[in-house]
Amino acid sequence: MNSEATLHQLKAALPEGEMPSSYGVYFKNTLVALCHALEDHILEQSDGAKPLVLVTFQQGKWYLQEADRYRDIANCSQQVAIAAIPDSGFSDHATSQLPNVDLVDLEADDSLTEEWNLIILAPGYAAMVLCHELSEEDYRNDNIPTIDVERKFYGLWTFERQSVELSAKILIDRMRPYNTSLADRLTEHFNGLKNNPSGTSVDLSGVVSRIVNYLQSSQQQLVTVNRQTRELWELEGQALKLNRNLAANKLQAFLRMVQKIDERDLANPVASLQVSALAETLGQLIDLSTIRLRRLRLAGLLFRIGLAEAPREIFQQTADHLDQASLVFWRDRAALGGQLLSSMPELTPVSRIVTHQLEYWDGSGTPNGLKGEDIPLESRILGLVAYFQELTETRGKRSAMSLGEALAACEKLSNRRFDPKLIESLSTIVRLAEIGMLQLPERPSQQPTVWLEDIRSQAPTTNKWSSLSKEVTP
């Protein structure tokens, strides 16, 4: 990658090891899906907080298909700056005549012609997709793309404001040689947004949900395109490569959604990590197989995904103080989560675990009223651990319970809500923790490589939950 590349400069500017972990190699259709999801968020924002939008469209030929769309984006933005090659045709389109839209005609030897970037900086949020196309040298000789959808890019996407602000500054500086006055105006917008950010953070769970939907549809489009251009045996190999790439990015979107849910829950901001970790410990104690532990660990990270669109009251009150609408949302959270995860066939076993976490041992739970051993074992573990962890944190007027108090509350529901054998296993873990023979883990032994932001420094330890003594393996 060229040393002048925006992506390369960002990597050099960030402290070692702090690049967003979404950094990797992406297929073109994946990037289209990510950019469309972020653009839709601009179009659907109703709070009047207009962003600064910086765009580079690589060779730019495809952009005319999007010109009308960017007219609408410009109407929702403070300023839009678009860099592309001069013969992209965009300068002839009416969108380019809008007062808050500026074009930068790139020289043919500028490495920006190899980049595809979308940077959005708003008062209440920041987001971006940064990428740089692989050179012929980066491909193996037998793997040089022959059709458009096979093209690959080094890239990343993130909502982390520091990275977005750094990238915006880099890109403005790269536009300066072309148009000094434009760079000055962009810098003025940038400084205004940087120095006066909104005190209210924007809920981005909706945009992440759209990312998942776009990734799902782009996968279907890829298969359709390949059917038209390849023999069946070639299609199968290509679809497999594309499927792996898209599956990783869909999972990444789900995990980011969960992180945003945890961030909204000020009283319990590390619930997903702690539930995953304790569920894994309980699964190890009862000798689950490796593959079942892996699925349980991931289900623990995703167990609250059904709360992506939940009203804020749910994170502030106990169930007995919720209004009727919020109570219905709380009651159906497991089914909602399972339904969302079902959009990704690769997660079918995990979706099943999440869906049935609120089934009760006596058959009075939801969504299917399963009873006893008919409830998947991993769902029984997840339901118990999630309830236990919730009790150890403050919620509304209810104070946080000690480990022993939370265990006692679970024991009262043994043989009614919870599997009595699992209660015994949880009791063993808690008792060992209380006498100092076991440390309750703060996070699972492994986190997926697609866990987006590094929140290890944000997860406080308490006198109830102690950090793992071993390093987390990514």
Characteristic terms for this protein:
474 residues, alpha/beta, Endonuclease, Chain A, Hypothetical protein af1432, 2 domains, 7-stranded mixed sheet, 7 strands, 9% strand, elongated, disordered C terminus
Shape: elongated
Instruction: Give the SSE string.
Output: HEHEHEEEEEHHHHHHHHHHHH
CATH topological fold name of the largest domain = Endonuclease, Chain A
Q: In percent terms, what proportion of residues is strand?
A: 5-15%
Number of continuous helical runs? 15
Instruction: Give me the count of strands.
Output: 7
Could you describe the 3D structure shown?
The protein is an alpha/beta fold. It folds into two domains: 6-202, Endonuclease, Chain A (2-Layer Sandwich); 264-458, Hypothetical protein af1432 (Orthogonal Bundle), CATH 1.10.3210.10. The chain has helices spanning 6-13, 28-44, 67-75, 161-175, 180-195, 205-229, 232-264, 271-285, 290-302, 324-331, 333-341, 348-355, 377-391, 403-411, 420-434, and strands at 24-27, 52-57, 79-84, 101-105, 116-121, 126-133, 152-158. Helix 3 links the parallel strand 2 (52-57) and strand 3. Residues 219-236, 450-463 and 466-474 have low confidence and may be disordered.
